[in-house]
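Backbones bend. To wit:
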Amino acid sequence: MVDRFAQFTGAVLTLYRYINKIKELEMAQWGLRGSHVMCLYYLGQYEDGLTAAQLTALCKEDKAAISRTVAQLTQQQLIRRSPSDTGNSYRAALCLTDQGKLLVKTINQKIEDILACSSQGISDQQRETLYRSFQVILNNLEQYVKQREESASPKACAGQSRKEGIEE
């Protein structure tokens, strides 16, 4: 059991570190930081823009981190804030500028190249199984945390049983 714990947490932490290192290395050429990647990526997915609140949820970052990133990307003229009906800048839509759109196109190509590199030796079916398995694990851990936050004592895992989960 302990070996499984060490293997799983070690793999997830190492993967996370590599992802962050790649973001930093690739963004440095444009004078940007790795923290800018996800904001630019999601803004590129939504032509009508996103609010800072939506970016916070999508990027899974806290409000302060998104606020800093938005300020930096705005200063570099990669995104712009649309006028807000409510006067609350946190609710105003953020959109890519033309310069930002060109950069996101380049970033998306780089993402495709990195994904192709990281998937070498893995079939499409294996990759889909991995992603489904990872989603089941995430859902189970989310459920566990919610249960722990609601009560002082841990409950049995309410997630799917092995039979209901991902088949090998």
In short: The helical segments are 2-27, 37-45, 52-59, 63-75, 98-118, 124-150. The CA atoms of residues 55 and 61 lie 8 Å apart.
